[in-house]
Design a protein that fits this description.
With 234 residues, the protein is α/β, with parallel strands linked by helices. The protein is 35% helix and 15% strand.
């Protein structure tokens, strides 16, 4: 199975390095991505938007011939949902790692502090306490050392989706970290806008992994095992 891993904000393909060994050992073709504008701190991020990141994932899907499992962390959940909308016949499962699909017309996050055309990794005080669970001092230093500014357009552009019937029928796994599966189901029952698109999916399973917003750093072995089960189950 082809497994395409889409990182969240400020991260490149290497952020998945501690998660991929179980998938590779099982014989899956694992393809972690570095999205446009995240190649280096000095990369040009002007004019890069949400559609550019979605198109990069679509191009990776089109580069292969096998069925694809898409994995998206954080803002990567919005990106893979747009890629599924474009290629619903090629994606056999979506895995949302402490994230979910983004509805048509919504944006990922308009509130992050920006500088020109980019969003540097903010001070830790910007994040909620739930985000930072298990992200100790050493991990925070490692994260900040590897962080690349995020193209602002990816955070503020509006999602554009069109193929509701086929997109919503693709099975999904939600890895619930800072918000438990029980909390997410409760929000879905209440019709909360945060989970509006998630509530529309026809086939969703939840797997709890209690930790903060970056399980690829705080619990990589556990996340790798969960991803392997999701892929093999597909």
């Amino acid at each position: 199975m082809d497994v395409i891993l889409v990182p969240g904000f400020w991260l490149d393909a290497s952020s998945w390095s501690a998660v991929t060994p179980p998938l590779e050992a099982a014989g899956h073709r694992v393809r972690p991505l570095t999205l446009p504008g995240l190649e280096s701190v000095s990369a040009d991020r002007a004019g890069i938007g949400l559609r550019d990141h979605a198109d990069a994932v679509v191009a990776e899907i089109d580069a292969g011939t096998e069925p694809v499992v898409l994995v998206g962390h954080s803002g990567g959940g919005a990106i893979i949902s747009a890629a599924i909308d474009a290629r619903p016949d090629r994606v056999v499962r979506a895995v949302y790692v402490d994230s979910g699909p983004l509805a048509d017309g919504a944006c990922i996050n308009e509130e992050l502090p920006s500088s020109g055309s980019e969003i540097p990794l903010p001070d830790w005080t910007v994040f909620d306490a739930e985000d930072l669970v298990d992200l100790d001092g050493e991990l925070r230093e490692q994260f900040r050392a590897r962080a690349v500014p995020q193209p602002k357009g990816v955070a503020v552009d509006r999602q554009q989706l069109s193929d509701d019937d086929r997109r919503l029928s693709v099975p999904a796994t939600v890895v619930a970290c800072e918000f438990s599966s029980e909390m997410l189901r409760g929000l879905m029952e209440q019709g909360h806008p945060y989970v509006a698109e998630l509530a529309r999916l026809q086939d969703v399973e939840f797997v709890d992994l209690p930790t903060g917003h970056w399980p690829q750093f705080t619990k990589p072995a556990e996340l790798g095992a969960i991803l392997l089960r999701a892929v093999d189950g597909t």
